[in-house]
Amino acid sequence: MSSGQTSHSLAFRVMRLCRPSFHVDNPLRLDPADLLAGEDIFDDPLAASDLPRLLHNHTLKSNDSDLTYRTRFLLNDPSDAMGLSGLLVLPQSFGAIYLGETFCSYISINNSSNFEVRDVVIKAEMQTEKQRILLLDTSKSPVESIRAGGRYDFIVEHDVKELGAHTLVCSALYNDGDGERKYLPQFFKFVVANPLSVKTKVRIVKDNTFLEACIENHTKTNLYMDQVEFEPSQHWTATVLKAGEGLSANDSPTREIFKPPILIRSGGGIQNYLYQLKLSSQGSAQMKVDGSNVLGKLQITWRTNLGEPGRLQTQQILGSPITRKEIELQVMEVPSVTILERPFLVRLNLTNQTDRTMGPFEVWLSQSDSREEQVVMVNGLRAMALPQVEAFCSTDFRLNLIATKLGVQKITGITVFDIREKRTYEPLPDLEIFVDSV
Prior knowledge:
By secondary structure, the chain is mainly β. It has helices at residues 32-36, 45-49, 51-58, 281-290, and strands at 10-16, 21-24, 84-89, 97-98, 102-111, 117-127, 132-137, 143-146, 151-159, 164-175, 181-193, 196-205, 208-217, 223-232, 236-241, 248-249, 262-264, 270-279, 294-303, 309-313, 317-318, 327-333, 337-339, 344-352, 361-365, 376-378, 384-386, 394-403, 407-411, 414-418, 423-424, 431-436. A hairpin with a 6-residue loop joins strand 15 (236-241) and strand 16. The N and C termini lie far apart (95 Å).
């Protein structure tokens, strides 16, 4: 990463500070024994017994004083086949920068002139498409002087939280050898890429909500997941499900102190996570009122091969849309067996899910649209009157019915009507009862 040459006495040089990589030597090594005898030498017991003597007389030994370096391809130790020489190599290029990492840069301002510069004010800023962040400012304590041929070095850090183009802006305001005040700006550009893609699916099975998260590695290095934790929103609790293990709650006090990281290989490796979400009873009522379907978000932390950390947080994950109901009518109790042409009671519950008083109400059995004869009907007055229901409250009541036909029959069309608002709510689904004779 470099900047164009200028006529200024000073110039910035920027080097990214990142961990070195292993130096891999030529892994093609030869065992000296393979030069003298093949694998079939062990088929002849007499020849095999002479092998140690042959190796002792002819094997080339590595010698540090041998300037010809003629033994560099010999496999003197089994570990030599790995190609790791024990040396570390500093990065030769600026490399890729990913979202969630910490950008760390070593910046040197050099005086290439033959005279001293004085009162140097240095600024370093990170400019993105949305903001400009100040990383260093020496306005209050300028560098007193930089001698001819000398330099001033400093380190800046920035947590990368945005994708796209970034510009590291380095500027210096100084007095040159003639006492003239000069201003030097230099710009160093780079692009931030996304290291991961997170795909989520939400499935509802009866009263359980399951969240599946698929994480894919888009970098050129392996990533080791230290933590992939789901942080549920208010009223939700989350439990991670693992293959071959029981439920492991996120907030469990017996949580493991050390967890081995999960490897996601470079260039498209994936890892799946499954969470079971449960909604509290209080949260269920509140969500039905305000219609919120926010489940929570994922916190992801990882490290690269040499331990460089990264951290990402997803946006809020949404569940299935919640239909808001002002009034909810539920069946609490139905007799298992009813007697033909004898009255029986069905216990119901009417809940007000709004923040205002509702009612008064009337409850009746509406007529079916089909031509089938209505077998179960109200015993007594056609409509039953109910009082007002306060906000977020409920009331229990019993509906007096009678059946006129034997066998399995359906109770259809239990309907609630709001007298004050002149509004009819959707009827309850059909209920089945068994009608027996005396």
